[in-house]
Amino acid sequence: MVWENGCVVIVMLTPLAENGVKQCYHYWPDEGSNLYHVYEVNLVSEHIWCEDFLVRSFYLKNLQTNETRTVTQFHFLTWHDQKVPGSTRSLLDFRRYSMKYW
Ligand SMILES: *[C@@H]1O[C@H](CO)[C@@H](O)[C@H](O)[C@H]1NC(C)=O
């Protein structure tokens, strides 16, 4: 989906797990690469902005064509299920940083 639509940014608003309940598939590798069909996903960098969110950079490769792309993922960590974010400030900061990439 990311490849077909030429996505350059992923905005993720859920933590991976909450209270032991999985909320989202961990679709990027912490090291090395993950392979989905002909698409290879590599983690290039992970930058922790604050305790509420971080930014990752992925390097994607289509192994059929050898075409490569970069995708940036903004991951908000503290908006918990059926709750509101703990602080307005960090959500607005998150929006401000991520919007530069849209
Ligand atoms: C992709 O790269 C590999 C390794 O360099 C090469 O063997 C292959 O022919 C390339 N494929 C295309 C479609 O360029």
List keywords for this structure.
binds 2-acetamido-2-deoxy-beta-D-glucopyranose; mainly beta; 1 helix; 102 residues; two-stranded antiparallel sheet; 5-stranded mixed sheet
The number of helical runs is: 1
Distance between the termini: 17 Å
SSE ordering:
EEEEEEEH
> Can you summarize the main beta sheet?
5 strands, mixed
Helix content: 10-25%
Strand content: 35-45%
Small-molecule binders? 2-acetamido-2-deoxy-beta-D-glucopyranose
What ranges have pLDDT less than 50 throughout 5 or more consecutive residues?
none
Number of strands: 7
Task: Characterize the structure shown.
Helix content is 12%, strand content 40%. The chain is built from one helix and seven strands. The strands form two sheets. A five-stranded mixed sheet has the order 1-7-6-5-4. With 102 residues, the protein is mostly beta strands. The mean pLDDT is 94. It is globular. The protein has one helix at residues 88-99, and strands at 9-12, 17-18, 21-22, 33-36, 39-48, 53-62, 68-76. The structure holds 2-acetamido-2-deoxy-beta-D-glucopyranose.
Q: What order do the helices and strands come in, and which of them pair?
A:
Blueprint: E1 9-12, E2 17-18, E3 21-22, E4 33-36, E5 39-48, E6 53-62, E7 68-76, H1 88-99
Parallel strand pairs: 1-7
Antiparallel strand pairs: 2-3, 4-5, 5-6, 6-7
Bound molecules: 2-acetamido-2-deoxy-beta-D-glucopyranose (NAG).
Structure summary:
The protein is 12% helix and 40% strand.
